[in-house]
Amino acid sequence: MAIVKINAITVPEGAGAELERRFAARKHSIDGHPGFEGFQLLRPVKGEKRYFVVTRWADEESYSAWWEGAGRAGHGQSDRSGEGTEADKPRKPVSQSADLLEFEVVLDSLEQN
């Protein structure tokens, strides 16, 4: 059964553009992982202030395998966008907090069945 993981991210006022830049820089880094089916970064426009990072997986095992390897490692990377020794400094988090929401897909209008 497919699953969806939604990371609800709270960012300080004015930090949304930096969050979007960081995700854009790594947009396709997860594409080839077994069981990964899709990704969306949702910007709040009304009724919500958090960004939502939505990923869809074939199953819990695929998500867990990604998180225990590349997922966890990717969240601790240094920011290498600068030059010299500044590029080696650990990247400061953009978010103030994040909550992981987890779902099983019960119905999907995009499926061919």
Please render the helix and strand layout as text.
Blueprint: E1 3-10, H1 16-25, E2 36-42, E3 51-57, H2 60-74, E4 97-104
Antiparallel strand pairs: 1-3, 1-4, 2-3
Structural account:
- GO terms for molecular function: monooxygenase activity.
- Residues 69-96 are annotated as: Disordered.
- With 113 residues, the protein is of the alpha+beta class.
- The chain contains two helices and four strands; from the N terminus they run βαββαβ.
- It has helices at residues 16-25, 60-74, and strands spanning 3-10, 36-42, 51-57, 97-104.
- It has a four-stranded antiparallel β-sheet with strand order 2-3-1-4.
- Strand 2 (36-42) and strand 3 (51-57) form a beta hairpin.
- The longest helix has 15 residues, at 60-74.
- The radius of gyration is 16 Å and the shape is globular.
- The two termini are 14 Å apart.
- Mean pLDDT is 83; it is low at 77-89.
Quaternary structure state of the chains depicted: single chain
Number of strands: 4
Radius of gyration: 16 Å
- List the secondary-structure elements in sequence, H or E: EHEEHE
Sheet-strand content, in percent, reads 25-35%
Strand count, sense and barrel status of the largest sheet are: 4 strands, antiparallel
Counting helices, strands and paired strands, the structural category is alpha+beta
Let me know the average pLDDT. 83
- Helices, by number, come to 2
| Strand order across the largest sheet | 2-3-1-4
Protein name: Antibiotic biosynthesis monooxygenase
Organism: Corynebacterium lehmanniae
GO molecular function, one term: monooxygenase activity
Pfam family, one: ABM
